Amino acid sequence: MSVINYSKWDSIEISDDEDDTHPNVDTPSLFKWRHESRIMRKEEEAQKKKQKDAESKLRSMQIDMMKKKAEQLKKDNGDAAAAQLKDLEKEIAAAVETEQDFRKKEAELEAYQKAHPKWDVDNISRDKQSRTIINKASDSPNDMEMTEFFKKYEKEIQTFGHLTDPKDSQKFLMENMHLVCDHLASYLVVWCVDLEVEGKTPEMKTVAHQCICAQFIMELAKSIKQDPRACVNAFFVRMIAGEEQYKAGFNDELSSFIARVQARAKVKLAEAEAQVAAEEAKEREARLGPGGLDPIEVMESLPEKIQEAFRTQNTPLLKEGFSELSPEDFKHHYTRAVQSGLWVPQGGEAGAEDDAADADDEAGS
Known about the structure:
Elements: H1 27-75, H2 79-115, H3 146-161, H4 166-175, H5 182-197, H6 201-224, H7 232-241, H8 244-287, H9 295-301, H10 304-312, H11 315-323, H12 327-340, H13 348-364
Helix pairs in contact: 1-2, 3-5, 4-7, 5-6, 5-8, 6-8, 9-12, 10-11, 12-13
């Protein structure tokens, strides 16, 4: 599937950590930071609401104090008290109007939020119209080791990964409940990185969408403490019928995940390129000739006829090729051929000198 060698992933050690997914792609961390971000956002929203409520209470207290003062001024006689009362009544009216406007807007906002809740894995609820009964005695797919799960269900997972219609995805998972576990998301994460490494970004984004679907189901199950297989319908009912506000949370997760996959793929490519460069350097060093030259590089620099002679091990053709060279070119190519190990003269250096003399004589004749 990939031009990069992923054979080191064939043997994966599984730990007892329930969040363990894959040693090369830390699946939980890809989603954990999103969960923490949602919690922080909700805490900030709660803090803002407390601040607004405190300000509202302060305004109410100020209004009460002004009203009491107005009652006192009404009892006093005199033009000064009357003028002061008139100004105070204006302040009271303005403060009451501000408070009423605030309460009206808060009520409208609360009503809108109830009608259009922001959908995320922390607040999605179970479907009240459909139920999936899971036999608690049945084995959970999570009980299977990840490597075994990958090998056994790879074709089915890839079929799910290519689906684009939520209805098709729902139907497929309902018919293949053995796929619904953390291992499903783990496989899809690894596959996404692999696809991005291969440059198949459009396909990666399709699989990434399915990966987030799987992750939402897993996190939903954890949040309501249910078997993930019992949460498939609950998720897809809202995925299919949800308004844009509901899908905003999902799309936010998807965009963030794609960005992290692309970043991870760049790291994998850099690691692979570094590994290839190191192996090439090691291979080049191993094949250097007695004079420290690379036979492949020397071969590519030789005239075509001499290259053909070396490839076919045709000695007459080799001599013929050298004899056609000028004395300067002959010496240059012959010396490099010997130093790279392409030409191994008999008798060591003395043999090399004899070979050179013989070939030089043929070239001059």
